[in-house]
Design a protein that fits this description.
Elements lengths: L12 H5 L40 E5 L4 H13 L3 E5 L5 H7 L7 E3 L5 E3 L1 H11 L10 H28 L2 H13 L4 H17 L8 H21 L13 H13 L3 H8 L3 H9 L12 H6 L2 H24 L4 E5 L2 E5 L3 H16 L4 H9 L3 H4 L24 H10 L4
Parallel strand pairs: 1-2
Antiparallel strand pairs: 1-3, 3-4, 5-6
Length: 418
Amino acid sequence: MRCLQVGQAGISKREQARQRPIVPLFCRMPARPLPRIARGRRAASGPTAPGARMTAPYRLYGGQFSPFSQKVASFLRYKGIEHAWIERTASTAAEFNRYAKLPLLPLLVGADEGVLQDSTPILEMMERRHPEPATRPPEPALNFVAALLEDFADEWLNKALQHYRWSFAPEAAAKSIAEAALGEAESAYHQAGAAEILSRMRARREIIGLSESAIEVIEASFVRTLRALDQALTGRLFLFGDRPSCADFALAAQLAQLLPIAQAGALIRAQGPSLAAWLARMDQPVCQGDFLPLDGAIAGLEALLNEACVVYLPWLSANSRAHIAGQASFEITIRDQLLRQAPQRYSSKALSELRRKRGFLRQDTILAELLARFGSEEILAPLSGQSGGEPAAPYEETPGEEAPGEAAQELDAEEAAG
């Protein structure tokens, strides 16, 4: 076992500086337009293909209001991986555009110009290249559970973030983003930027899954998730034992963004002390031991897994069926609450990736029994031709296609601000 001990993380002054407030977004302004990240592919003269070798030191392009950026930044700090944080602003737009295949955060660039986008592929690639301290439980079934909870955070809990951020104080959120993006620009530019952001978000609420019926489901699920997390963390440092997992990084990143929002923060603080202590711990996580064995780990995760398997996965499956069928909308009843919304194409891709990972463990009877226990074995059954294998390559955009999962959350929610 190898763990990072307190004081051994190698945190330099540069790395400490990364923790300062980060500018998340830039936007066009009248009379003095700022460059805007273009959608589409990199030029042929751009850097190497995504994921090519990816050698240190790395450059991480991210934003303060992007939970996915913070997820990766926390992971890299925990691993002690040498990297520099680069704020994605108007002044770094040209540099960002040189590497980005999609206008989304985070983006990781290696010393060899290899590029990765989308936080989960970044964590998976970095885990293979920097295996210690491990963030993936060694037992295959438990590793899949961690991946499922990571996906639950990225795809479902993020809906709570978008709801609380843009439903309760949207003007304040837009103002903060504009001011952070434009720095010391004249107040007129701040006001114009905030107005543009706010207008875009109001027009795209349905696109990002914030229908009126969805909001009721999201709020109820958020409260249950908080209770489940506090229960899971009672008596343990992290979700799977004495070291953080990929699921810890994903869930903590979403909650850290929700905490400053008055309505959401009050709900978080109303939970027991275990959740609060874990959130504080995840600010600078330190490995203090091993992962628990499967039985011991699952014993504390029943409520959280139940939320992922009984709420999130059925929604994910219904969404995928509607998208494949070309439906304009779909309905699903979740815990006696009716949810009606337009299907989201990227979520179909998220389900496909979970099924692919399940296919890699097709013969794992322990995982099969565990998923059957929570009623999700059928939903996660690999489709014909899916047999697992190596993790999927980072998302490659094709003309007219959306990014999967968190990528589309970033694009649709805040024009790549996160």
